[in-house]
Amino acid sequence: MYLTREEEKMLKGEMGYAKQVAMEILVALGEIYGAEKMVPIRSAQVSGVSYKNLGEAGVEWLEELSRDGRVEVYTTLNPAGMDIERWREMGVSREFAEQQIRIINAYTKMGIHPTLTCTPYLAGNKPSLGDHIAWAESSAVVYVNSVIGARTNREGGPSALASALTGRTPYYGLHITENRAYSIKINVPDLKDEYDFALLGYVSGKLSKEKIPLFSGIGSANQVELKALGAALASTGGTAMFHIEGLTPEYMLPPLDRVEEIDLEERDLKNAAEELNDDTEPDLIFIGCPHASLEELIMIMQRLRGRIVKKEMWVCVSRSIKELAEQLGVYQKLEELGVKIVSDTCPIVAPITSLGVKSIATNSAKGVWYSRNINKVKIKIARLTDLIEEAVQ
Ligand code: F3S
C-alpha cells in the first residue's frame, strides 16, 4: 500500500503514540481490502461510546490514546449510555455514570465534539456531495452516502477513530465511484409515512444483503422517512447505501452488469410488521431511532393535542435538537404533557434492562430489531399516531 511521507512518519511513531496506533489500524484495514493508498477525509463520526458496550478495557484504551492523540478533522460522537444531565432520573447507577463520563472526557480530550448522537448530519456534521469521510454508526453511514452523496465505508468505532486521528481512510469500497452503483432494483408499493419507509428498509435489507439497492416508485420522501429507511436497511442488511429513482443524488450512476429486479407488495410490508410484533404491552414507548429531528418533536406535540401521556414515553434526540426545541418552547410543552425528551442516548445503548424495562414499542424497525436481538426485550412496532394513542390511554 502506498503511503505518503507523512503517513510513513505516523506509522513509525514519529508523530506520537496515538497516531502510530491509528495508522497501524488503517494500514491493516487497507491491506485486507486491497486499498492502494489512503485518502484525506473531511470529517469523522466515531461510535463505541456507551460504557455498556465498551467496558473497563475500552475505557482504558481510550484514555491511553487520549494522552497524545488529537483529531485532524471535524469529528463527532455517537450516543452514550445515558443522558449526561438526566441520568439520575433515568435510574442509571452512579458507578455507570462515572465510567461513562471518563469515556466522554477521553474523547473530548482528543478534540472530538461530544455531540452524542446518531444523527450527526442534524447536529453540525454535514458533509457535501463527493466528500470523503470516515463514519461509524450504520444508520448515519447509509444516510450520508445515499441522501447527501458523501463517501464513507461502514466503519467500526476503532477505524473511525483511527481516521479521525490521522485525517485519512484507506481508499477502497464506497470511496470509489464504480462501487457506488446499484445491483438490485426494488419496485416499491405506495408508502404513507416513516413507518412504511422503516418496514421497506427492514424487508429490503434482508433481500439486498450486501448489494446496493435502487428503489423505484417512491415519488418523494422527506428527511424523517429517509432516515427511517436507511436505519432499517442497515440493520437487516450489510449495505451502506441506497438510491431512489429521481430523488437521491447518485441514482443515475450506471448500474453493475447484472441487475436483479424485485417487486415488493403491500403484503410484504404487512408481513414484516407482524414479524416485528410480540403482541406485548410495552413498558416504554420510544420515538427517535435514529434520533428525532425538530420536525418529529413538533409532529408529536401536534398529535398529542394537549393530552397527557400516561405511559413512560421517551423521545430521543441530540443535545443540539433539544436546545433548539427549548428555544422554541417545544421541549417545555412536551415535558408538561409527560413526554421525556432524552438526549445523548437511546434505549438500545442505555442499560435499560437493568432499569427494569422488559418490553418496548416504537415506530422504528431498527429500534425494534436491536431491542429484540441485543437487549432481548419484547417488541412492538406501530405508527407514530397509534403509539401516541397508546401513550395517552
Ligand atoms: Fe440511534 Fe440508538 Fe437507533 S444509536 S440509530 S437511536 S439504536
Q: The CATH topology of the largest domain is what?
A: Aconitase, domain 3
Principal-axis shape: globular
CATH superfamily of the largest domain: Aconitase, domain 3
pLDDT < 50 runs, ≥5 residues: none
Provide a count of the helices: 15
Number of domains as seen in the coordinates: 3
What does this structure look like?
The chain has 393 residues and is of the alpha/beta class. It folds into 3 domains: 5-177, Aconitase, domain 3 (2-Layer Sandwich), CATH 3.30.499; 181-272, no CATH class; 276-392, Aconitase, domain 3. It is built from 15 helices and 14 strands. The protein has helices spanning 5-12, 17-32, 51-66, 87-90, 94-109, 138-148, 157-166, 194-208, 223-236, 266-275, 294-304, 319-328, 330-336, 365-373, 384-392; strands at 38-40, 43-46, 74-77, 134-135, 168-170, 184-187, 213-216, 243-244, 260-263, 284-292, 313-317, 340-343, 359-362, 378-381. Strands 12-11-10-13-14 form a 5-stranded parallel β-sheet, with helices on both faces. Helix 14 links the parallel strand 13 (359-362) and strand 14 (378-381). The longest helix has 16 residues, at 17-32. The protein is globular. The mean pLDDT is 97. The structure holds FE3-S4 cluster (F3S). FE3-S4 cluster (F3S) binds next to strand 10 and helix 14.
Please give a handful of descriptors for the protein shown:
393 residues, alpha/beta, Aconitase, domain 3, 3 domains, 14 strands, 14% strand, globular, binds FE3-S4 cluster
Give a quick summary of the entry.
This protein is of the alpha/beta class and 393 residues long. Helices cover 42% and strands 14% of the residues.
